[in-house]
Amino acid sequence: MKKMALDVGSKTIGVAVSDAFGWTAQGLTTVIWDEQDFQTAKPDLAKIISEHDISEIVVGLPKHMNGSIGERGEASQRFAAYLEAEFGLKTVLWDERLSTMAAERVLIEADVSRGKRKKVIDKMAAVMILQGYLDSQSHSY
């Protein structure tokens, strides 16, 4: 069973999925949605959950540097609760501080143009979120 991570923004959701062993994260897509209507993301996410046999969803939780949760973090918490209720899957909130900045740095170091970075930054941030989560899990294989 695979895990899926979401980098939730107000207009887009970056999506990454794990391999079957839960060791590595791969960027999948960016979903366009209307934050005011969670249902706008449902068809795309339902398709991904089904096609990739997703068993757990990791939602990036943006926190302030002091650890407090602001408006964006509260929005992610609401969306995570919706996902858990809608799809019946375990949903985990994962501290995503600096994930977008780290993704941007990786893309710059890879000499990806500014225009192309804008198109993949959310997906890359989802990869950073998922890989951080996967690395924190203990594997007893």
TrEMBL record:
* Matches recorded under SMART domains: YqgFc
Report the EC number(s), separated by commas if there are several.
Answer: 3.1.-.-
Its subcellular locations are: Cytoplasm
An example GO biological process term is:
rRNA 5'-end processing
Record's keyword annotation contains Repressor: no
Q: Name one GO cellular component term.
A: cytosol
Sorted keywords for this record are: Cytoplasm, Hydrolase, Nuclease, Ribosome biogenesis
Q: Mention one GO molecular function.
A: nuclease activity
Its domain of life? Bacteria
**Which class of enzymes does this protein belong to?**
hydrolase
Enumerate the spans annotated as YqgF/RNase H-like domain.
Answer: 1-103
Question: According to its UniProt record, which protein family does this protein belong to?
Answer: Belongs to the YqgF HJR family.
Q: Which PANTHER family match?
A: POLYNUCLEOTIDYL TRANSFERASE, RIBONUCLEASE H-LIKE SUPERFAMILY PROTEIN
Purpose: Could be a nuclease involved in processing of the 5'-end of pre-16S rRNA.
Protein name, entry field: Putative pre-16S rRNA nuclease
UniProt organism field? Natronobacillus azotifigens
